[in-house]
Amino acid sequence: MKRYTIIGNGVAAIGCIEGIRGVDAQGPITVVSHERHPAYCRPLISYLLEGRADLGHMPYRDGAFYERMGCEVLSGRDAVGIDPAAREVELDDGSRVSFDALCVATGSSPFVPPFAGLATVASQHAFMTLDDALGLDAAIDATSRVLIVGAGLIGLKCAEGICGRVASITVCDLADRVLSSILDAECAALMQARLEEQGIRLMLGDSVDRFEGGLAHMKGGEDVAFDVLVLAVGVRANTALVSQAGGEVDRGIIVDNHMRTSIPGVFAAGDCAQGYDVSLGAKRVLAIMPNAYMQGHAAGVCMAGGDEVFDTGIPMNSIGFFGLHAMTAGTYEGACYEERGEGSIKRLFTEDGLLKGFILIGCDERAGIYTSLIRERTPLDSIDFEALKKAATTTAFSAERRAQMFGEAV
Ligand SMILES: Cc1cc2nc3c(=O)[nH]c(=O)nc-3n(C[C@H](O)[C@H](O)[C@H](O)COP(=O)(O)OP(=O)(O)OC[C@H]3O[C@@H](n4cnc5c(N)ncnc54)[C@H](O)[C@@H]3O)c2cc1C
Fold first, then answer.
1. What is the distance in A from the centroid of ligand 1 to the CA of 286?
2. I want to staple 107 with a disulfide (CB 3.0 to 4.6 A). Which of 42, 86, 173, 271 is the partner?
3. pLDDT of 322-361, one tens digit each?
4. Is the four-CA dihedral 249, 252, 255, 257 of positive or negative sign?
C-alpha cells in the first residue's frame, strides 16, 4: 500500500486528501500540522472578530472528515526536514514519518521587517491564523488605540474585524494607496474613502521608523501613540523544507502543472507553491484559497498515481470592506475598456485577442464569466465581446459554447 504524507493542514492539504482518496481509498495518509485546529477557513478570522462568525463556522470540513478519509493528523507538530533518499520527514520531536509520496502544503508566514525598537512593544500581533485572531480578540477593548502596519488585504481585513470594538484604528503603509497589489490609484481611492467614512485613519506613503513602547515614530515625522500593534506587512512562502532538501525554489516552491517539485515523489501545493499563472504565461505564487484547493487536489490525484493537471490558475480576489465590493483577476496589461458609474469603476484589460484581467469595484456583475474567459483563454473574436464588456451575461456566447461552459441546454 502506498503511504502518503502531507506537511501542513490548510485548504491545500484538504484538496490533497480529497485528491488522493478519489484514486486510492486505502493508502494511509499522515498529516503533520503545526496548528492544533482542524483545517479552517482563514478568511473568516476577521468575521470572528466582528462577531459575524463563531468558532463553529470556522472548520473547512465536518468533524468526522479526517477519520472518514483515513488520515492520522499529528497536531501541534512541525516537520523540520525532508530526507528524499530515505523518503522520510523528520519531525520536531525527533521522530520520522515515512512516505512514498509527499505533499508540502506549508502555506506562508508573516514577514516582519527589522523595525528598530519592535521588542519594546508590549502588545504586538500578526493576523494570519485563528490563534492570531483569538489573541487579538483578548488584547483589545473599547479603549484600545490600534496601529496596523500594512494596508493590504490582511491589514484591512483586520481593521474591518475590529472596527467599532476599539477607540481608534490607524493603518499605515509605505505604498501611496490601499490594496496596492490589486487596485490602481483610482479604484484604491474609492476604497480608501469607504474606510475613512468608518473612522479608520490611513497614513499612506508613510511607515514606522522606530518604536518606543507605545509610540511609533513615523518616517514622515509624526508620532502615533497606540496600545495594540498589528503587523501585516506581507507574507513569505514557506519554502525552506524543500530548498534544504535540494529542491528548486524561487519566491515559492517551483512546481509543474502536476504539482511535482524538482524532487521525485515530492509535490507542493497552495500558498507555498509557485505554479503556472495562465494570465501571465509564467509561474508565480497565487496565494488564494481556490488555487490552494485545486493545486492540492491535483497533487493528491497525481501522488496516488492518477493524472490531474492544474494549469488554469490566475490571481483573483473578491473582497469587500464595509459593503464596498472589489473583484479583480489576472494581469492589468494591454488595452483598457472602462465604464464608470456612481461610486463604481469597471476596467477590462485585453491583449492579443484575449481578456487578460479586470478590476470591478462597486459593480454588480457576474464576474465569474470574465474569470472563465481569462482562465480558458477564450479568443474574444469567438464571442460577442462587445456585448459582454457592457454586461457579463451568458447570452454573449453561442448556444453550443454556453452548453460547454455553463451546462445550459442547447
Ligand atoms: C486574513 C486573511 C484573509 C484572507 N482572505 C482571503 C479571501 O478573501 N479569498 C481568498 O481566496 N484567500 C484569502 N486569504 C488567503 C487564503 O487564506 C490562503 O490562500 C489559503 O489559506 C492558503 O491555503 P494553504 O493550505 O496553502 O496554506 P495555509 O492555510 O497557510 O496552511 C498551511 C499550514 O501549514 C502549517 N505549516 C507550515 N509549516 C509547517 C511545518 N514545517 N510543519 C507542519 N505544519 C506546517 C501552517 O502552520 C499552516 O497551518 C486570506 C488570508 C488571510 C490571512
1. 12
2. 271
3. 999 999 999 998 999 999 988 899 999 999 999 999 999 9
4. negative
